[in-house]
Structures are given as C-alpha cells and as structure tokens.
Write a structure and sequence with these properties.
alpha+beta, glycoprotein, FAS1 domain, 388 residues, FAS1_domain, 17 strands, Plant_FLA, lipoprotein
Length: 388
C-alpha cells in the first residue's frame, strides 16, 4: 500500500494525502508495476494552492502524471535512455483525457548522469533528486525537485462525451434490458455518467435469467445499488491492460463501503474472466472501447460475497442467501432466529440438509451475524462455480 510506504516521509505528505483524497491511490495500487515520481511539499503545496485545494479532479490528474506505468530504478533509466530520452506512459494517459503525447512524460539523462523529466517536445522541468524506496519489481518511489504539469491539464476535466453515452451501446444490442432497467431504477446510470473514466461489466439478459428465483427481489434498494456498482471500475481498462493488471481490483462499490473487490483471471487462454469468491464471469464481447470508457459483456451476474452467501454444503441445490454479514450501510443486521432459515412461503421450510427442492432458491438470511463457516465465501472453490 503506497500510502503506508510514503507515510514514513513527512516531506512527501502532501502528495501522499492527496493520493487518498482524490482516490488515485486505488489506481496506483491496482497496477502490477509502477514508478511514482514525487515532488516534496515545498514545491507541491504552491501548485495545489494555485489550482484550488478542493479542485480534486485537477489535482488527481496532476498526481496521475507523476505515475509512470512501469517499474524503474535509476540505474535502469540511465542504461535504457538514448540521446533524446525515452517517452513513457503515465497513469494520466489511462484516463483518455490527454491529447497527442500529453499523457506521456519524457525522461532524459544529462552528461552528468542526472535524470530529467518533462512534457514530450518541451524542455525538461524536473530532476530526480534521489531514490525514496523500491519494492522490486512492483513499486518504485523517486523524489523530484519540481512538479510535473501536463500541457492540457484543466481541459475536459468533467465526464467525457463517451461516458455520457455509456448505455447507448448496450441499448443498441437489445439483450441487456434487465441490466439497463436496474441501472435506471437505482440511479446508478446517472452516477456512472458523472465519472471521468469507467470500465463497465454488463451481464446480458440470459445472465439474469440464470440467477436463482427471487434473487433480485430479496435485495433492498441499497443492496441493488451496491450490486450494480460492483460491476463498474472507476478506471479505464483496455482488454490488454486487464490481462496484466494487479488484482484484486476495487470497484465503484468499494469506494463507498469497502470490500467489493474483483479478481481478474486469464487462465485457459486469451480470454479475461472476473472472479468474486462466489462465482466467475467471462467477458464475451467488447461493447464499447472509447477512452475513457470501456463496456464489456459478461455471461454471469457477478455475486459479491458482501451481499450473497452460499447455502450449506449438504443442500441439494446450489442455493444462495442474502449474507448475514452484510455491511450496516446496505441493510440492518438480521434478527437472530432459529438455526434453520425460514422459507419465503408461509409454511416452515425443512432444514437445508432435507430440503426437497432441486432448484436454486434465494431466501433472506435469518441466522445470527456470524454465519457458519460452510456459508462463507471461503468454502470450496468448485461450489461457487456451480452456484453461478
């Protein structure tokens, strides 16, 4: 965690603080290898004051421009840099906002061995002062004597036009009606359109039909919102970058209540899958890829363990229930009741071990807040796959 690493260096506290306040820390920690070039407080504070301490959109892009998307060390930079320098991609580039080469930074080495950084095609305005610390070959931290400022900073800081047309690609396909209806009824579609970058994982209508009966009906409005936010990542990812990204990935739901993270799997070939701990969804198509927005069709509804729990291992069908350990922000803790969960029908249901129904069912959890170990996401890896 980069904020814990930088917390040891008081003179870098401004950069560290705004990593958290802007949410850029989640983008940094989602990368498998990255180098942070960090200006100290003495030179970064005036920049923050000039753009406004509350202008987090602009500050976020300033921070992103200091994050190079590969692991670097001083010796490595000196060995790989030619006479004119090398151009490296930054985290700012992944937002889709910069034009031309403005999302890249030029790195050059002077005859004295000093490392200089700047906007490509312009004079370098920052020099590496020293190494801060490295964690080979994932994270590297270096200190700069001046901040880096992308040329088009401040242009198009709001949502890009492609974000506003986020759902248009899905509407055109005609087989995402359930997902689109839920986005509209919960207001999550409006929240997505307010974001500067997003990767959306869209289950098709068949994926919703495959859910157990009453799966959605048993959820509160807050749980539905969290479920939909679980299908969105507040960063633009191409298919190629998903294949190499470090996981787990925070989702939009993570930023509100914690947890709700996704793992990315590329096992078994060139395809990309998302794994929740309860089930797995494969990307079946790219519906939209226009920076800073990507929309990928998936063949299953992603089930977060924070909302759903598997039925006990002895149940005859792959039943799911609303997880009793759900965070208070989503729903109140269930009232302790009998050891067996009641059926939605008026008559009492038999215990899971003797339940005769062969089809998957979803019922509200009535067990105490600490569920039995057989109902937690840590049960066998094959059971969640069957439940999906």
């Amino acid at each position: 965690n980069s904020t814990r690493v930088l917390a040891k260096f008081d003179h870098l506290s401004t950069f560290n603080r705004y990593l958290s306040e802007t949410g850029v820390i989640k983008e940094v920690d989602s990368r498998s290898s990255i180098t942070l070039f960090i200006p100290p407080n003495a030179v970064l504070d005036p920049v923050i004051a000039s753009v406004g301490a509350n202008n987090l959109l602009v500050i976020a892009d300033i921070l992103r421009y200091h994050c190079v998307l590969q692991y670097l060390e001083i010796k490595e930079i000196r060995s790989m840099t030619n006479a004119t320098g090398i151009v490296l991609a930054t985290l700012y580039q992944t937002t889709g906002k910069p034009t031309g080469e403005y999302g890249f930074v030029n790195v050059s080495v002077s005859h004295g061995g000093l490392i200089h950084l700047g906007v490509p095609g312009a004079a370098s305005n920052a020099t590496v002062v020293k190494n801060v610390t490295q964690h080979p070959y994932d994270m590297s931290y270096m200190e700069l004597d001046h901040p880096l400022m992308p040329m088009d900073l401040g242009i198009d800081q709001g949502a890009a036009p492609s974000v506003n047309n986020l759902t248009a690609a899905l509407k055109a396909k005609g087989n995402f009606n359930t997902f689109l209806g839920l986005l509209a009824s919960t207001g999550v579609d409006k929240a997505l359109r307010s974001m500067s970058a997003v990767t959306l994982l869209a289950p098709d209508d068949d994926a919703f039909k495959a859910l157990p009966p009453n799966a959605l009906a048993e959820l509160s409005q807050a749980q539905k919102i969290a479920l939909l936010q679980f299908h969105a990542i507040a960063t633009y990812f191409t298919m190629g970058s998903l294949r190499s990204v470090a996981t787990p990935l925070p989702t939009v739901a993570s930023s509100r209540i914690g947890g709700f993270e996704l793992n990315v799997s590329t096992a078994g070939g060139k395809g990309v899958s998302f794994v929740t701990g309860l089930n797995r969804a494969d990307v079946t198509d790219t519906e939209l890829d226009t920076p800073p927005v990507a929309v990928y069709a998936v063949n299953r509804v992603l089930l977060p363990p924070e909302i759903f729990a598997l039925a006990p291992a002895g149940a005859p069908g792959p039943a799911l229930s609303v997880a009793p350990s759900l965070a208070p922000e989503l729903s109140p803790a269930p009232t302790p009741g009998p050891s067996s969960s009641p059926s939605p029908s008026p008559s009492p249901s038999p215990s899971p071990e003797s339940a005769p129904s062969p089809s998957p069912v979803m019922v509200p959890a009535a067990s105490p807040p600490a569920p039995p170990s057989s109902e937690t996401p840590s049960s066998s890896s094959s059971a969640p796959e069957e439940a999906a």
